[in-house]
Amino acid sequence: MxxxxxxxxxxxxxxxxxxxxxxxxxxxxxAIGTIGLSFTDFNIFQSNFVGLRNYTRLLDDARFLRSxxxxxxxxxxxxxxxxxxxxxxxxxxxxxxxxxxGFRMVIFLPHVLSVVAVSLAWMYLYNPSAGxxxxxxxxxxxxxxxxxxxxxxxxxxxxxxxxxxxxxYYMVVYLAGLQTIPDYLYEVADMDGASRPRKFFSITLPMLxxxxxxxxxxxxxxxxxxxxxxxxxxxGGPLNRTTTIVHQIYYRGFEGYxxxxxxxxxxxxxxxxxxxxxxxxxxxxxxxxxxxx
Amino acid sequence: MRKSGVVLLxxxxxxxxxxxxxxxxxxxxxxxxxxxxxxxxxxxxxxxxEKIIERFExxxxxxTVSLRVIPWAEYFTVLNTSFAGRVGPDVFGxxxxxxGPVLADGNLLPLNEYLEGWDGWDDISPAxxxxxxxxxxxxxxxxxxxxxxxxxxDLFEExxxxxxxxxxSLDELREYAExxxxxxxxxxxxxxxxxKSGFNAEQELLQFMAHVGQDRLWTDELExxxxxxxxxxxxxxxxxxxxxxxxxxxxxxxxxxxxxxxxFMSSNAAPELEAAFGDDVxxxxxxxxxxxxxxxxxxxxxxxxxxxxxxxxxxxxMSAEGQMVILEKQGLLPTxxxxxxxxxxxxxxNEVFFExxxxxxxxxxxxxxxxxxxxxxxxxxxxAVFGMKSPEQALSDAAENYRQAVGR
Amino acid sequence: MLHSLKPRAVSRSLKQSIAREVRFVxxxxxxxxxxxxxxxxxxxxxxxxxxxxxxxxxxxxxxxxFDNFSAAFQYGDWGRYYFNSLYITVVTVVGSLLLNSxxxxxxxxxxxxxxxxxxxxxxxxxMVPYQSIVIPQFVVLRSIPLAxxxxxxxxxxxxxxxxxxxxxxxxxxxxxxxFLCRQFFFSIPKSLDEAARIDGARPFYIYWRxxxxxxxxxxxxxxxxxxxxxxxxxxxxxxxxxxxxxxxVQLALQQFQGQFTVQWNLLMAATLVSILPMVAVFLLxxxxxxxxxxxSGIKG
Lengths: 293, 408, 300
Hints:
The structure holds 3 protein chains of 3 kinds. Helices cover 70% and strands 0% of the residues of chain A. Chain A has 13 helices and no strands. Chain B is an alpha+beta fold. Chain B has 2 domains: 33-145 and 294-358, D-Maltodextrin-Binding Protein, domain 2 (3-Layer(aba) Sandwich), CATH 3.40.190; 147-291 and 365-406, Periplasmic binding protein-like II (D-Maltodextrin-Binding Protein, domain 2, 3-Layer(aba) Sandwich). In chain B, the strands form 3 sheets. In chain B, strands 1, 2, 3, 6, 9, 10 and 11 form a 7-stranded mixed β-sheet that branches. A two-stranded antiparallel sheet of chain B has the order 4-5. In chain B, helix 2 crosses helix 12, helix 2 (46-59) packs antiparallel against helix 13 (320-330) and helix 16 packs antiparallel against helix 17 (391-406). The model of chain B is unreliable at 19-29 (pLDDT under 50). By secondary structure, chain C is mainly α. Chain C has one domain (76-298): MetI-like fold (Orthogonal Bundle). Chain C is built from 15 helices and no strands. Chain C has helices at residues 5-45, 49-53, 67-72, 78-109, 115-127, 130-142, 164-168, 175-186, 190-198, 203-214, 216-232, 235-240, 249-253, 264-286, 293-298. In chain C, helix 5 (115-127) packs across helix 8 (175-186). Chain C starts with a helix and ends with a helix. Mean pLDDT of chain C is 82; it is low at 1-5 and 291-300. The chains are: A mainly alpha, B alpha+beta, C mainly alpha. Chains A and C meet through helix 1, helix 3, helix 4, helix 5 and helix 6 of A and helix 1, helix 4, helix 5, helix 6 and helix 8 of C.
């Protein structure tokens, strides 16, 4: 299609206007405020300009760097299994299966529970003595674990919970994506006698590129901001093995009264997320996943 | 087009109630004084303050109080956000971590000039008044919870110990703990002494420190006191409980889940523990007979529009009746000597608690850098009890980190 | 082709039914794993207090305590909290579905200068951690002009703090919803709107008459996710709402987190009741998941 000035839809500005106004007032302006605070020593009550001091401090804050590593670990640890499992379940559930509605419901249900409820319920499951997991292991005569209290197991335990919690989201979005694949593509493939795996890899997977792209982008964005689970279940411990960037933002800002420094962390996280998302978009474009009409 | 008409109608119908319900919060009649009272705690804790408000509103004409109870986990966020937005409450509770920073920026009303002739001056335990005093001026009053040694009668008897003869020294405490620990192979089933290893572990460390002669974490000049010999000795003792498999790593006290034979438990937990274990919970004084006090401070905001009325509410909370209601509903201890008889008559173990309040100690003078202390010392304790650093090393690193953070 | 049809058809249908059974068994296994923590929540909700202390694991309660549900709801005006939550959720979800799909359509199907840049700016909104903007956001809500006793410059009163406005208006827009709709509209064949454009249709008409009816699967998905998000939002109303008659269900639920011991059974009971509306929304929306564009759009 030729780019032609006549083809511009200037009405689009009107159509996006309500969103733009709301977005500017409640997200953009506060975010700009946060960027401003990151150059100050704002301590909840007052602030002085300190230039880039908060940013230079970030670089030799060992705990912040640790939280960065933990956040990346959490992100990769949750997204990859969730994508694979979510897609498989969605594909299977897109076929006529007995009790399909029930399966969908149960798999999705964890996602509608609040972070607080999920975290509290899993703390109960993970409790080393009273917890269900260890009681089952004991009754089966197997070794028990300290789950959230073991420095090496704490983060994997949180990740396992998050996969359980988020799988329904991946499944539902994939199900919506599957509906956009026209039936005739499969009909043509059937006529060519294509096998089931071949149909999956040459039709389903490529046609779901836009959906997968969406899930990766949103997954990265949300995972980078993980906080509630960590705050409720471990408070970043033991030995800071589960502290995340947003947990550090909360901890420094609200408990430590160092809001200026916490704002610098937030700006750093924002820049990191923007960078990763731009890379995602670039890779996505290359694969036709983010191609505008 | 009919369809869009229906949608429009639905949208208008949904928005309309907002218009009807919204607003109205700012209109204030001239004569009535409205106060905001914010309390950190759980839902049921609010009942105490509802009663106090009832009494207050009956006593002070034209004053109404709007109460908000906010869980500790969210209290920092909610209180700090409203301070930052300049719409903070008039009277509010504060934790130890908040008192210093909030006071340092001049946000608390100096109470002395409003409290002339107040009966609390002579009645309230001096140590508890001291905790909220800075440069001779009272800014906040503490509603304390103290730490005492809670033990399980049944577990003592199983281990062949007499539950009515508590350990009298740290060595005895250790012997008892050793004898009381129940293990399944390497795993601890019942901890001889239940200790925290991370969150709030500075409270445990201070208990041990007080037993070897130091009950402060910083000097009045805010110099750190955590690389002293006493601190190192205390952390060495505390560390041994973890390395010798007597206590489990945990941010919570598990005594309440039935997983500890002894614990430095909060007086606040007494009703719940007694509900769960009945007569099997026995309270003793700490081995050295002195108790660390924590709890909630009550203060008045410096920019309240009605300081006199707000101080009246403060007085109502800190009155003998107020303290007894708070004790009943929230479990925070009374600090007035005049309620001794009534308090002791409620439960035999209250003798331990009353004694604790009168002779208790807190972390040190009000410190605007409280966070920096905690932020330095908690990781140090954790690294020591996980065996990653020696107590000396961990604590000298902590002191160094503290000095660096506060720019000394 | 005709003569070979019969034997192949038989083996194919046999294969298909085996495949169906295998699918069923695998799904049942996965679903059980997923359901297990849910079952724990459900059965914990009806266990008695003494049983909560026992060290032996049993899935089913020894004694079914259905009065846990009434015990969990004894404090406070839960009718009011449910009304607040329901009202806020319904308005937010309906409003945001319309606004988000409109913007998503514009970003996917209309051409205008700055389109990608504006869209990316919206995406950035998802990347800002809430904890870092809560204070500026609080100040914005407090400073809404002429609201809650404020003057024209937004000073003097409390603005939208402690009102329904604060809980609804900021969430009517939403980067996530715009993004989701945009991705969905990308996948719709171009022939649809091109045909309409040749007939001279305006963009809004194309959105309203062609794309919105096709968007059922994505709107159903968004409705569920947005409902969950709004219903479960805890941190935000906690900061913005101060009086008890404005409490939402999630705010009221916080009461079950005691300081020393959590009353697990009561907490789980309250949690269960609090998610019932979500289950209802899911049941309503889920039949649309599979009513895709292929059947309802092109062929219809």
